[in-house]
């Protein structure tokens, strides 16, 4: 005996609720507000990759290396194996200093 194809039509699921699930009166998008979302801060000694810095500061790679060559940006920490990381607190302090210079 073959089982019948018992796919529910799209209209049959409207207003139904699975057992054990809470009833949601509003769409989820209205429940999540940007002010309720908190992004955890990185620890001060956190070491980050170049791409994190470029994304955070919206810099190009060329600009970052130009600033490094001019000694106008915190130097990276070189890791065994050739990797380089930056101390997050130093990068944030550099960005804060740029903001303070602008406000003067």
Describe this structure in words.
This protein is mainly alpha-helical and 104 residues long. The protein has a domain at 47-103. Helix content is 36%, strand content 8%. The protein has 4 helices and 3 strands; from the N terminus they run αβααββα. A 3-stranded antiparallel β-sheet has the order 1-3-2. A hairpin with a 5-residue loop joins strand 2 and strand 3 (84-87). It is globular, with a radius of gyration of 26 Å. The N and C termini lie far apart (83 Å). The model has no long low-confidence stretch (mean pLDDT 77).
Question: In a nutshell, what does this entry contain?
Answer:
The chain is mostly helical and 104 residues long.
List the helices and strands and how they pair.
Blueprint: H1 28-31, E1 47-48, H2 50-57, H3 61-69, E2 77-78, E3 84-87, H4 88-103
Antiparallel strand pairs: 1-3, 2-3
Order of helices and strands: HEHHEEH
Helix content: 25-40%
Largest sheet: 3 strands, antiparallel
**C-alpha Rg (nearest Å):** 26 Å
What keyword list fits this structure?
104 residues, mainly alpha, three-stranded antiparallel sheet, 4 helices, 3 strands
């Amino acid at each position: 005996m073959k089982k019948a194809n018992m796919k529910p039509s799209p209209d049959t699921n409207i207003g139904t609720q699975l057992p054990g699930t809470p009833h949601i009166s509003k769409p989820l998008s209205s429940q999540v507000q940007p002010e309720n979302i908190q992004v955890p801060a990185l620890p001060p000694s956190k070491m980050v990759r170049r791409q994190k810095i470029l994304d955070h500061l919206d810099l190009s790679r060329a600009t970052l290396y130009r600033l490094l060559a001019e000694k106008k940006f915190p130097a990276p920490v070189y890791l065994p194996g050739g990797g380089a990381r930056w101390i997050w607190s130093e990068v944030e302090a550099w960005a804060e200093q740029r903001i303070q210079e602008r406000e003067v």
